[in-house]
Specification:
It is found in: Secreted, Extracellular space, Apoplast. By secondary structure, the chain is of the alpha+beta class. It has helices spanning about 1-20, 180-185, 190-200, 200-210, and strands at about 70-75, 90-95, 100-105, 115-120, 120-125, 135-140, 145, 150-155, 160-170, 175. It contains four helices and ten strands. The structure holds 2-acetamido-2-deoxy-beta-D-glucopyranose (2 copies).
């Protein structure tokens, strides 16, 4: 009996460890963002309080403000901005890039990403865990995919503004932005770790930190 149980657990293990967000247990569970999430799902708003408005979201209609260091803006349509996504395991973002703008190298720990270019010309690239770089320049209507957790970026290489819509198999994909993860944390990673990592002296690390505004 114990052997059988072990066998079942062993056979299920790959499915358990590779699962994305859990499957829904109800038709919907519009998040009550005022309550604390348990196991990453928010408690549901009482069904009697739910209206049509809960299932529609205007947040991706407007151009994001790209007046910043990178000339880019990601506008999230995830559970935190669109509470009806709670428990459904999906979300979307809008990415605006000014000419030459860069959505800097980052990864999403909890989701694969697919995206479609709506406007402009974009260089999309990602790097595998084996350090192979894949990339292509895309135009309107062309689609891309970024496997879960891999580092990737989008850069505007055209003359005009870029708009991209991206979709994730998580209600809250999370983003690890490499530059800020290393150089703009609170508190800072000790300087000797960064100088040793990059084999440079501290003036270079300080320069990067001040360029990033920290
Ligand atoms: C549900 O609606 C009632 C009446 O409008 C309101 O008082 C209450 O705060 C609402 N509850 C939630 C969790 O939204
Ligand atoms: C865009 O962001 C910049 C920098 O934060 C700010 O000065 C500017 O007012 C913003 N523009 C709009 C239209 O909100």
């Amino acid at each position: 009996m114990a052997a059988l149980l072990c066998m079942v657990v062993f056979l299920l293990a790959p499915f358990l460890s590779h699962a994305a967000d859990p499957d829904p247990l109800m038709d919907f569970c519009v998040a009550d963002l005022g309550s604390s999430p348990t196991f990453a799902n928010f408690p549901c708003k009482p069904a009697s309080n739910v209206t049509s408005e809960d299932f529609f979201f205007d947040g991706l209609m407007n151009e994001g403000n790209t007046s910043n260091l990178f000339g880019s803006r990601v506008t999230p349509g995830n559970v935190l901005t669109f509470p009806a996504l709670n428990m459904l395991g999906i979300s979307m973002n809008r990415v605006d890039l000014a000419p030459n703008g860069l959505n800097p190298p980052h990864s999403h720990p909890r989701a694969s990403e697919s995206g479609v270019v709506i406007k402009g010309r974009v260089l999309v690239g990602f790097v595998t865990t084996g350090n192979v770089f894949y990339s292509k320049v895309l135009g309107p209507g062309q689609m891309f995919v970024i496997p879960r957790g891999l580092v990737h970026f989008q850069k505007n290489v055209g003359e005009n503004k870029v708009v991209i819509l991206t979709a994730f198999n998580s209600q809250n994909a999370g983003a690890v932005v490499l530059s800020t993860t290393l150089f703009d944390t609170n508190p800072s990673i000790p300087g000797h770790v960064l100088t040793q990592n990059f084999q440079v002296d501290s003036s270079i690390i300080n320069g990067i930190q001040s360029n990033l505004g920290s």
